[in-house]
Amino acid sequence: MVQRHSRDFGPGYGEGRYTYRGDGGDDSERPVGELVAEAVQQGQRLVREEVHLAKIELRNEVERVRQVGTSMALGGTLLMASVYLFLFGICFAFGAVIPLWLSAFIVGAITAGVGYFLVKGGIARARAMRVSRQETVDTIKENLPWKSASAREHGTISRTQGNA
Fold first, then answer.
1. Are 2 and 23 in contact (CB under 8 A)?
2. CA nearest 103: which of 80, 87, 115?
3. Phi/psi of residue 8, each to 5°?
4. Given its phi and psi angles, is residue 120 left (phi above 0), alpha (psi -120 to 50 degrees) or beta?
5. Hey, is 12 helix, strand or coil?
6. What is the pLDDT of residue 27?
7. Could you give the percent of the chain with pLDDT greater than 70?
8. For residue 4, which phi and psi values (nearest 5 degrees)?
9. Closest by alpha carbon to 76, among 121, 60, 84, 61?
10. Dist CA 74 CA 78 (whole Å)
């Protein structure tokens, strides 16, 4: 006895049904063209479903990134305001001992010096990252001919593909 099973993929996916034999036998009574057409339709349906799923996942990821970005922007704004208030407080504290204009000048100079060294250190780290990326690219370029030769020996690529 031959059992046939079917599954409904829901609306929007072609005919929405496929069938297969449950007895493990072959579909020798069906024409080859029909089998090929069914395989192509199922492949197309699978690709559409994967693209649809990727769009949904990307949309959800973008929404999460937007929420995180908004939170970070608001937090950064509040932190910056607190730094300004803290620096004003230091200026007024020094202003009790020395003239206010001089305390603002001293606090501003110290803040500028700290900022300068932080930026300088960041630039140095960024340059080091660029060098490490170049080292990675150089390593890949060194390994590419070896991998191509190895693949040719094992017959996984043709000689014309190995030079690309």
1. yes
2. 87
3. -100, 120
4. alpha
5. coil
6. 55
7. 65
8. -115, 135
9. 84
10. 6
